[in-house]
Amino acid sequence: MKALLGREYQAYIDSFDEGPASGVRVNTLKWSPEQAAVKLSGIEERVPWTDNGFYCADIHVLSKNPLYHAGLYYLQEPSAMTPARILLVEPGDRVLDLCAAPGGKSTELGARLKGKGLLFANDISNSRAKGLLKNLELFGISNICVASENPEKLAAAYPEYFDKILVDAPCSGEGMFRREPDMVKDWMQRGPEYYAPIQQKILGHAAAMLKPGGYLLYSTCTFSVKEDEENVRRLLDSYPDMELIPIPGFPGACGGAGLSGCLRLYPHKVRGEGHFLALLRKKNGRNENGLSLQMEQAKMDGHNACGPKLAEFLKNTSISWDSARFMTNGDYVYYLPEGFVPARGIRYLRTGLYMGMMKKGRFEPSQALAMVLGRGIYRNCVSFETDDERVIRYLKGETVFLKEEEPDAAGWCLVCADSFPLGFAKGNGRSLKNKYYPGWRWM
Question: Which phi and psi angles does 424 have, rounded to 5°?
Answer without folding.
Answer: -100, 160
